Amino acid sequence: MREVLGIQKVIEWSPSGDLVTEPKQEDVIPLIIAETLDSHGMALVQNMMKAIHVSNFKIINGSIPFEGESLNFKQGIIFGERALKASMLTESPFEELCSQWSTFNGKSFIVTHELKKMLVSEFPGDIKMYKKQVWQDLKNFKSNGEL
């Protein structure tokens, strides 16, 4: 049976580019908040999660009004419309898309560093050279109980 990964270590990517490591979250189901996604965008998110073997997750469509403060943003992975659509339209390397992410309801995007690297290893762009190191880093990261 495939292990379902919980997001236990999150890194906040602030608008200034600084990284802020947050405390571990135990037994978290990844929550993906995607801005105004159409069916193609939703499919892309689902494929990304499938590629990294995360089968238990929730997607909230950002076009549905909700009070941002009512959600625990430390328990999720937030993808921006710009990043997803740019990926679909241009097949840009994922690490470049990360730098294009804006904010969602005034919050900084949150993504695990290792998850970002895993996505980089799985999707189009000049990134194949990273793949071997990415999976070795992931193995080390998991063995330390951090993911």
Q: SSE layout and pairings?
A:
Elements: E1 11-13, E2 19-21, E3 31-34, H1 39-51, E4 58-61, E5 76-79, H2 81-90, H3 94-98, E6 110-111, H4 113-122, H5 131-143
Parallel strand pairs: 3-4, 3-5
Antiparallel strand pairs: 1-2, 1-6
Quick structural gist:
The protein is of the alpha/beta class. The chain has helices at residues 39-51, 81-90, 94-98, 113-122, 131-143, and strands at residues 11-13, 19-21, 31-34, 58-61, 76-79, 110-111.
Task: Describe the structure in your own words.
With 147 residues, the protein is α/β, with parallel strands linked by helices. It has one domain. It contains five helices and six strands; from the N terminus they run βββαββααβαα. Helix 4 runs antiparallel to helix 5 (131-143). The longest helix is centred in the first third of the chain and has 13 residues, at 39-51. The relative contact order is 0.19.
Q: Name the structural class.
A: alpha/beta
Q: Kindly provide the radius of gyration, computed on alpha-carbon positions and rounded to a whole number of angstroms.
A: 15 Å
Described by strand count, sense and barrel closure, the largest sheet is: 3 strands, antiparallel
Record the strand order, biggest sheet: 2-1-6
Order of helices and strands, N to C?
EEEHEEHHEHH
Number of helices: 5
- Termini distance? 18 Å
Helix content: 25-40%
Q: Poorly predicted ranges (pLDDT <50, ≥5 residues)?
A: 1-31, 33-37, 61-139, 141-147
Number of domains: 1
Shape: globular
Q: What is the strand content?
A: 5-15%
Give the rounded overall mean pLDDT: 43
Give the total of beta strands: 6
